[in-house]
């Protein structure tokens, strides 16, 4: 068992044009976990994200692509525990206690329950479905603030170098290796902006098609490619 302490935690935040949320996200994390290392891995933002993040975290420049950015942030971090946080996702108060509880029970990987903040009345149902998938199938997505030990992350080879579904594939790999995923009792709150901006049903259909192509054996492009945008989650 690898013991957990806030001083042994590195929080990695991938970013691309997140000027509207990155400073607030980092300030919140700093107040919740002042001892934790904070790393922002920027994928070439042009909106001032880097300038806003630099006073609040270590900033690393990277090629664009969330898997590439997450893996680079993990390599450059020093913590024995890693937490991967999207800039538009807020961790719950007490998240450190949740991680300590997971470590105390022998888990080396985990995720939080999901809450989605947005206008559409079906977003709570969407979050409920994601939580049930994690509970019963052991699969979680990046906006659930995945966390794991550095040892496990290295042993699994990090996130697969694909342009989308890197989070799904990482936790699927854990499941296939027989490594259990801890589901926290508390929930992160992630922004429903893509659902509000793109339209709920149109966005839902796009994500279903991505999943369908994946399940049909379709190849996912490498992280450096533009396919999938690199900054979209699939429910």
Would you write up a description of this structure?
- The protein has 235 residues and is of the alpha/beta class.
- It has one domain: Spore Coat Polysaccharide Biosynthesis Protein SpsA, Chain A (Alpha-Beta Complex).
- It contains nine helices and eight strands.
- Strand 2, helix 2 and strand 3 form a beta-alpha-beta unit.
- The protein is globular, with a radius of gyration of 16 Å.
What is the CATH level 1 assignment?
Alpha Beta
CATH superfamily: Spore Coat Polysaccharide Biosynthesis Protein SpsA, Chain A
Instruction: Tell me the Rg in angstroms.
Output: 16 Å
At CATH level 3, the topology is: Spore Coat Polysaccharide Biosynthesis Protein SpsA, Chain A
Give the strand line-up of the largest sheet: 3-2-1-4-7-6-8-5
Number of strands: 8
Which sheet architecture does the biggest sheet show?
8 strands, mixed
SSE class: alpha/beta
């Amino acid at each position: 068992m690898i013991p957990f302490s806030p001083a042994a935690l590195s929080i990695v935040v991938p970013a691309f044009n997140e000027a509207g949320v990155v400073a607030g996200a980092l300030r919140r994390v700093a107040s919740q976990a002042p001892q934790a290392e904070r790393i922002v891995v920027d994928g070439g933002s042009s909106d001032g994200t880097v300038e806003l993040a630099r006073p609040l975290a270590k900033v690393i420049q990277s090629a664009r692509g969330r898997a590439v950015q997450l893996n680079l942030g993990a390599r450059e971090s020093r913590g024995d525990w890693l937490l991967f946080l999207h800039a538009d996702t807020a961790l719950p108060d007490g998240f450190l206690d949740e991680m300590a509880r997971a470590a105390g029970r022998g888990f080396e990987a985990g995720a939080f329950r999901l809450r989605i903040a947005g206008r559409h009345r079906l977003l709570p149902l969407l979050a409920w479905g994601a939580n049930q998938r994690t509970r019963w199938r052991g699969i979680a997505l990046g906006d659930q603030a995945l966390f794991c030990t550095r040892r496990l992350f290295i042993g699994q080879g990090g996130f697969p170098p694909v342009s989308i579904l890197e989070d799904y594939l990482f936790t699927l790999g854990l499941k296939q290796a027989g490594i259990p995923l801890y589901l926290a009792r508390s929930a992160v709150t992630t922004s429903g902006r893509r659902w509000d901006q793109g339209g709920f049903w149109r966005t839902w259909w796009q994500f279903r098609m991505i999943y369908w192509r994946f399940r049909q054996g379709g190849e996912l492009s490498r992280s450096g490619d533009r396919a999938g945008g690199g900054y979209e989650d699939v429910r």
